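Troubleshooting log. The previous structure file for this entry was overwritten by mistake, so regenerating from the original sequence record. Sequence copied from the archived sheet and checked twice against the printout by T.R.
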Amino acid sequence: MDELYAFLFGGLFILLMLFIFFGGASYGPVSNYTNGEDNVTPSGELTWKNINLQDITISEQELTKKETITEAYEVFNGLFFGKKFYKAHYEAEDKILNNLESAKFTYSVKDTNRYGELKVSFNNKTLNSGDLVIGKYEHDVELLKENIIEMKTTSSGWKIWAPSTYIISNISMELDYKLKDYPEYEFFVSDYIHRNLKKGELMFKFVGGNDELEIRLNNKTIYKEMPHSGTNIIELLNTKEGENKMVFSSEGEVELENVRVRLYYYQ
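Regenerated output below.
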């Protein structure tokens, strides 16, 4: 009988020790993902949102800009009538000036009594001087950031009954330049998606190109290399709540299709 009690007490002791060491343990799925805000682990079903940008082509474009400086102006000069001359300032845009192929200064003599000679100058360089007839005139010019255009006529001299007169119209600049258009896009990330965000991706199909593609998100370069054929997936590491700005650029030519942002988040 004493042996029976000894076995019972021994068994109870073993059960007690097992409970002490293993009784408080629990098992189940554990997620180690956090969204970076106070180590909060999102819960719920993982889903995603697509933000379609569009097909993108980066290439050099041949462009022409025609800008009318003055539509019409009369210059004259006479002994009893005084004189009136034309002077205008023309400022060239930096993006055009830096990519300029050619620049032409154009104007038309709409009417004149031809009592004197018309002198036309651009940045103190004489472009034309003489007894000009009615018609259109154009001159190749060296364009600067700041440009000065002047037109004046000589006096009518002994023809004292009238001044020398020229009516000038369509005083204009015609600029040919090459320029690359670097596509820029903005997309919005809501507070809810940002708080429950797992990751963001940029996806596109590379159609063709001859140089590296650079992509900047919120002023930070996230990709700079030659894309591979087919679909490319780039992780977005600095997506922020609210407006996000993405810029695509290349030194060469690049063509992309089906460009989209995909945001994975818990709901």
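The chain is about 10% helix and 55% strand. Archived copy saved in two places this time.
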